[in-house]
Amino acid sequence: MDVIDKALAWLLSHPSNLLWGLAGVVGLCTLGAIAGMILPLVQPAKDHTNLRERVASWWVMIALLAGALLIGWPAVVILFAIVSFIALREFLSLAPTRREDRLIILAAYLTIPLSYFFIIIDRYGIYLVFVPVYCFLVTPFLMACMGQTRNYLAAVAMFHWGLMTCVYNVGYAAFLMRATSAEIMPAGPAGLVFMLLVATEFNDVAQYVWGKLFGRRKITPTVSPNKTWEGFIGGWVSTAALIWFVGPLFLPVQGGALATIAVTLPLAGFAGDVTMSAIKRDLGVKDTSHLIPGHGGVLDRIDSLTFTAPLFFHLLAFFTVGRF
Amino acid sequence: MKFLRFLLLLLVARPIARFLTGADVTGRKLLPLKGPAIVAANHNSHIDTLLLLTIFPSRAMLRIRPAAASDYFLKDPVIGWFSRNLIGIVPVARDRVGTGEDILAPAREALAAGDIIVVFPEGTRGDASDEMARLKSGVARLAEAFPDAPVTPVWIQGAGRVLPKGEHIPVPMNCAVLVGEPLHWEGHRTAFMDGLRESLLALKAQAPPLRWG
């Protein structure tokens, strides 16, 4: 009993808003699971395996993220470093590479522990420039040193794109855990990460649902033919409303600052989704792997996050989180 | 020693395989779980062996025996001990072909004991260029000797990028492992080999594009 008491005390030592938020997400996922059980009874003709797989995968992802958020910033940093690694591996495996590039690929992976190391030692200024300036310069230099000039610029650009999206931009989600604020954060730094992830994923799901229900006019016919204006606008409005009404429980912002986040974050999510679709179309694949049943690869799941994480971070930094 | 091999495969080899390749398996349910059975895969890298040793459910893991060239794996005593006892190879003396020696005898013994033999019918590792070499017919002779053993074709895409022949540093890159419907011996070697070749090429056609120049 002692152990249970201690675990309960540990759980309750977290901000109550965070606990209620996590409980809300578990509730939503339970609704999804119930839908997965009821739909086959209502529409027995249709195949609902994908929905069930998606929900089952959501349970795993929610468990991992909730566990990390409750444990604290070291766990969140490790979790996102692993996400970065798997996403970068997916990206580099699909992108055109050559046998001569093997060592550069290895070097690209090395930027993950380095970049996340600057989060661990909490040096925001160095984190900010490490990938966009120094990796940006070193990658082409290393390739030049190895005497590769064939298709040089395209190969360099490919590495830059992978590092910026999978390592640098995703890292911002983990860096939120180190935030401090002059104003009170109602759910601690974990509340910031929580709101970012919930808003980003809610936007993906809302766009999908609005598109399925009312979608008629294609928005990006050549890149992602399943996306519609109705899905985009429905998702935008729903997510903005979510951020506007739920945001004050987790974020140290109100009024104009909150409205700015509410309006821009769904747009960034949509942009990330479409951009990654364009890349996948160029590479000739639908999913980046089959790691997450029902969803595809890690890169498929975090495509929106690679755009929303830096925007969310910088907006908070601009409006409130003083030290960044 | 069996227990040691089990621990090594489960706690060392499997995490390494996941880290290096992502082990993106399609059709996992088609893998045989008990012997005698034969798994025939294309071969570009030592990573192929690592993957095939670790993608099976743990209850079938100790049954997996990769057929491997004795002239390569058994020439050094340390590597030889490791190959025999921990990797669990079945030696194939490919340098003794034509001497009248029955080089498939160890493989047949393993099949008779109920093991799952992994064979690479191309005979040796190719380059990562994705081309399949001419298949050698040893696998047909094994299937003929054990007509009830299913022969499961497996296409491994991209292992040659993780560790190409001649390189020593592995670089993590996703590999797709595609498992096909098992084939059965129907009495003719050429027909059997043609069927195996077609199955492998059909699996290859489903694999994600490999942009490796």
Automatic annotation (TrEMBL), chain A:
Top enzyme class of this protein?
transferase
Catalytic activities: a 1,2-diacyl-sn-glycero-3-phosphate + CTP + H(+) = a CDP-1,2-diacyl-sn-glycerol + diphosphate
Q: Which InterPro entries match?
A: PC_trans (IPR000374)
Q: What does the UniProt entry say about where the protein is found?
A: Membrane
Show which residues constitute the signal peptide.
none
Record EC number: 2.7.7.41
- Recite the UniProt keywords alphabetically: Membrane, Nucleotidyltransferase, Transferase, Transmembrane, Transmembrane helix
Transmembrane domains' residue ranges:
18-38, 58-91, 103-121, 127-145, 152-175, 187-210, 231-251, 257-279
From the UniProt record, give the pathway where this protein acts.
Phospholipid metabolism; CDP-diacylglycerol biosynthesis; CDP-diacylglycerol from sn-glycerol 3-phosphate: step 3/3
Specify the protein's topology with respect to the membrane.
Answer: Multi-pass membrane protein
Q: What is its main location?
A: membrane
A Pfam family per the record: CTP_transf_1
GO molecular-function term, one example from the UniProt record = phosphatidate cytidylyltransferase activity
Per the record, the similarity remark reads: Belongs to the CDS family.
What is the official name of this protein in its record?
Phosphatidate cytidylyltransferase
Q: What is the lineage of its organism?
A: Bacteria, Pseudomonadati, Pseudomonadota, Alphaproteobacteria, Caulobacterales
From TrEMBL, chain B:
Molecular functions per Gene Ontology: 1-acylglycerol-3-phosphate O-acyltransferase activity
- Which SUPFAM superfamilies does the UniProt entry name for this protein? Glycerol-3-phosphate (1)-acyltransferase
Give the main EC class.
transferase
Task: Quote the EC number.
Answer: 2.3.1.51
The Phospholipid/glycerol acyltransferase domain covers 37-159
Q: Which InterPro entries match?
A: Plipid/glycerol_acylTrfase (IPR002123)
What highest taxon heads this organism's lineage? Bacteria
Q: In which pathway does it act?
A: Lipid metabolism
Keywords from the UniProt entry: Acyltransferase, Transferase
Q: Pfam families per the record?
A: Acyltransferase
**What is the official name of this protein in its record?**
1-acyl-sn-glycerol-3-phosphate acyltransferase
